[in-house]
Batch of 2 targets.
Target 1
Amino acid sequence: MSVQRNYEREFVRTFFTSPTAVQGEDDSAKMIRSAAGLRGIQAPDVWVPDNEDATAPSMRDEGVQNIIEVVAEEGADFPGEIHPRVVWHRDDAEKRLAGFEYMREIADPENGAVDHIDGFVIPEVGDIDDWKKADEAFQQIEADHGLEEGSLSMSVIVESGEAEIALNRIRDEMGKPSNTLERMFMLVDGEVDYTKDMRAMTPTGELPEWPELRHNTSKGASAAGLIAVDGPYDNIRDVEGYKERMEANRAKGMTGIWSLTPKQVEVANKAPLPPKTGTWLLEVDGEDVELTSEDGREVYDGDDVSLSESSGSYALTIDGDEHELTEDELREELLDRTSYVPSMDDIVESMEEFEAAKEAGKGAIAMTQSATLAIDGVEVDVSKDRMWDEATYQAAQTPITLFQDVYEHRPDQHDELAEIYGSDVVERATQVGN
């Protein structure tokens, strides 16, 4: 039996933070006012007016008032969810009290913002008892203001070893009569403070990669029916590094990532979606090299592979080694080194074909991928069969389920999605698997 999710959204691609009050500006709310106006592919799935680390302590009281003003005025038109981040700390009762008071002020119906607030983000949590303290604060705020119990979701930032250990307990604690932890929505990694808490060091002073933390957060989210989000990628100019980080995360089941700029939001919104066109890859020196489609051929145009043919024998130089091969041996060698990244249309078509076969009473079918590879003008036909059964179908469905989740909850992105894929593919993608 699958884990029950308590919220409509199954996926969050983007977690965008913006400071709630900027010192020295005529309008201290300029950053969140700008964020509230984002639309389409530049608007995040979750917007986080950040009244903690992104806002100076001396400006946080003003930041709360800015949140109330901007969200009350513009929250109804914002296309994503809104989850302000407040102060909290597992070892500091004064900060916990301040966070409680900030949430209570923002959630006061008389201030006009709470109808557009989906929840709050709680940083610096500790063990599971601290998560329960935060939940109790939510309960009291809802009771004080006459809000429906559980109407405000709670997301936490995993920034300590204590919080990481708590990930293994959250599923068992949710649903107990003594708490309302069913309000949990997102688990967000905070690698900077986590590094500090772990007293970790690197020779350059840069953050460790922390793949274990990301895996544990994703695992905890999967077990409890929550959403996992990776922490901020500080080098905002390194778009390729940002993409690589997201690709590694998705292999762990973590779709969401922190975004610091609208440009990062745009990149992160697009990255998890299936590509518009399929791509053949050739493994060279342990790296996958993208081939170029030209006139029905997949062309390698680099300098690290060479291929020539003479009297039915082939000389292939790759990875620094030269091989004399027959045509069949060459085909097998290249087949072992090639892989295919399917397009949105490819995935939809394969799912449709399997659904039709299943309707006809077949439990498994073979899907064929074929291409003509061209290296130094020498062409080689390769093809591979993949057996599709119900498990294969379910695995292939994940990116389509993501697309359907986006399409349902982000109508402001419909035009851009149709522009990327074409309206026919979008229509089929919204229907397949249902």
Target 2
Amino acid sequence: MSASTVEPGTRLAQRFRLEDRVSESEGATLWKAIDEILARPVAVHTFDPDFPRVTEVVTAARAASRLTDPRLTQVFDAAEDDGLAYVVSEWVTGESLSDLLAGGPLEPERAAVLVAEAAEALAHAHEHNLHHLCLRPGKLVWTTGNTVKVLGVAVDAALEGLTTDDPALDDAEGLGRLLYAGLTGHWPGDEEEGGLPAAPMSDGHFCTPRQVTAGVPGYLDTITCRAVLPESRKSHSALSTPGQVAEALADVARPLTIQYTPPPSPPPAPAAVSRSEGLDTQQRTYVSQPLPPKQPSTLNRVLMTFVVLLVIAAVGVGAWTLGRKLGNPAPPEAAQSQPPPSATAEPQIVKPSNATGFDPLGDDGAEHPELADDAVDGKPDTFWHTTNYNNATLGNLKPGVGLLLDMGKPTKIADVIATLSSASGASVELKVGDSPDLSSLKTVAKQKDASGKVTLTPDEAATGQYVLIWFTRLPADAGKFRGTIYDVVVYSPGTA
């Protein structure tokens, strides 16, 4: 069979039936086909007789078929014989990053998780000496099955004839561009890409994500600059491999919260049964009928009569007691001896002048200090967190880590309300003192198995310039252990 005879209805390898021509580019054609043996859709590439890189594409596809990460497109078959070459791979349905950005930038954490998943998958490919080299918004897909897919590892580069001296750096920069796009809705390139406008520039350089879109967390801005904006890295080192990008994004909270929205379906008919995909559940609709009014039974009438008699007796006793008090008023001296009620002032919120991640026993004395302000900005979707550890006791490396607040001056502490992650198992302490040294901070409150909103109230009066929320035990988080603080509010006793 020659390539010139390839048309809808053609069967390859006696099982893959070509159905719809999806796209054509420089002698390569992408088809939607049906695997007739497994009764599922597949993607098939075929090639014109004069396509110059057939051998390279088939070789790359066979190598990619050995990859096991489910976030990478699976290759099912690749052949070059009888004058016809083809590559059969997974048919992926969902929304590409371009589709997701049609309405504007994503929420920062959502963009970060998408790219983090892609970075981990590409790190797996690089371990097998396979690369992508042409990461674009259309190559990153949020599937209808609520998973991330990276399309075209190895195969796309062969199709386009792309080579590079440093594939790890090229893919790290590609991931940085995808993160930039997710955070800003712009593409950091000279031209538009995937329907996204080119990123704005300042003094001949691309603006950083925070300069383009308000609300981008500082740490994501820094990661993007380290991956793809060398002129904005400042003192930070470059991220030069997908593995380094994955490591930088490893602390992003998961699971992914982007939801695929299917087209609306007509409402079910009454009493119909609907079955959710993958779940053995049923939903039925019932029409309720009005019930006839119940007639009171003899027992009910007796109980009602008894209740009425009790009410009448209670009213009589109350009236008699009131009459006695009115007839025998208390002497003026007794009335005057009652002390006036004291005025109790409400505790006042005191904002810290500074916050930092605190790891006095670590190598640099800090624990994600770049995220500390996110725990005191009053926004529920930003947070500070510890490093990931291998067990709940901080890898048995240290007694604790925490978030240190500098109140600016000695402050009386009434309560400290900290919003932690919903994962249970954290043990936290509240420490207060006049010096940021751990030995100078006194423990004034403790709580075990803490999660969600936690109120730490000092056991006795506490005053100090520094307030420390100190984790001594961490909850589980995505296979690791880390502490997370979404918000901290410090209350000081009010004055009457």
